[in-house]
Amino acid sequence: MKICIIGSSGHYHYVLKGLQKNTKIVAIAPGCANEDMTSLKRALRELGIEPKEYEDYQKMLDLEKPDVAVVNSFFGRNPGILFETLQRKIHTFAEKPVATSLEDLEKIKRLYETIKDDVFFTAMFGLRYKAHFLTAKALLDSKEIGEIRLLNTQKSYKLGKRAEFYKKRELYGGTIPWVGIHAIDWINWFTGKKFLSVYAVHSKVCNRDHGELEVTALCNFVLDQEIFASISIDYLRPDKAPTHDDDRVRVVGTQGILELFKNKVIVINDKGENEIALLPERQIFSEFLSQVKGTGFCMVTAQDSILATEIALLARESADTGRVIQICQQ
């Protein structure tokens, strides 16, 4: 199975960790002009992988005819590339968000409806596959804390020195669609309930000369059955913090509370407060390949990827306009 990687600006490491037997990265190319491919090439070299290098990804797709494309360029350019790989009926592993405008997302949705029996694509929601997230999901599905009524989530990152494209909304897409979308996916995955409305805010203040990049944001959602969910997002994690990111989830149920932080899962219920033994970690790209081959299933579907993107873009619209946005989820 031949794999081509387009761009090096996202989470291509999922691909390198999830390669299977009889799969080969045959070629790489930037997704747009001025995209620095250095980090990807270095990571491939360290694994002893030496693919062909192209300057034009369209030429690469024409000549290599890959089974799988990895779309991993500047976030605002990924939707056009994804649309093209799907048009060519190439199975695609795409960086999230899969679109940075509702118009582009609608085009992708319409196209995928016509080819979904022949082609699979998914977004890089690899955090689902971490041991603590898999464990939390299993506990929630088994009703360990009863019925979910409230979720508070957190995404906190170090800002560091970001690439130039982060400074422009056109190329970056916004912090809610780039960072907050993970928590939107968790809320959808954990509850399975429809999103009904969102009110969000975001700010560029104190972004250390990063142009249009928002460094703080809050999102508040109402879900079906009067379940409430929130997301706290920031790029203000101190440089000397022990980890780059700090992901947290607190789920309040009718029979207890589940907390996820520092790669741990804590359950508080009538049995007291207990740290739960973790399930084994899995690899999203490996399961993506199994889905493509027909030997297994990927936990993140194309529909999950589209939904999380739509909700993130509506939350960004709420933050841009200062309005509550009603969500007409199908």
Brief digest:
This protein has 330 residues and is an alpha/beta fold. It contains 10 helices and 15 strands.
What portion of residues belong to β-strands? Answer: 25-35%
Q: State the CATH topology of the largest domain.
A: Dihydrodipicolinate Reductase, domain 2
Give Rg in angstroms. Answer: 20 Å
Shape: globular
Secondary-structure element string: EHEHEHEHEHEHEHHEEEEEEEHHE
Low-confidence runs (pLDDT<50, min 5 residues)? none
CATH architecture of the largest domain: 2-Layer Sandwich
How many angstroms separate the termini?
35 Å
Widest beta sheet: strand line-up? 14-13-12-11-7-10-9-8-15
What oligomeric state best describes the polypeptide chains here? single chain
In CATH, what is the homologous superfamily of the largest domain?
Dihydrodipicolinate Reductase, domain 2
Q: What's the number of helices?
A: 10
- Kindly name the structural category: alpha/beta
Major pleated sheet: 9 strands, mixed
Return the CATH class of the largest domain.
Alpha Beta
Number of strands: 15
Number of domains: 2
Helix-strand blueprint:
Blueprint: E1 2-6, H1 13-17, E2 24-29, H2 38-46, E3 52-53, H3 57-64, E4 68-71, H4 78-87, E5 91-94, H5 102-115, E6 121-123, H6 131-141, E7 148-157, H7 169-172, H8 175-191, E8 195-203, E9 216-223, E10 227-234, E11 245-253, E12 256-261, E13 264-269, E14 272-275, H9 284-293, H10 302-321, E15 325-326
Parallel strand pairs: 1-2, 1-4, 2-3, 4-5, 5-6, 7-10
Antiparallel strand pairs: 7-11, 8-9, 8-15, 9-10, 11-12, 12-13, 13-14
Helix pairs in contact: 4-5, 8-10
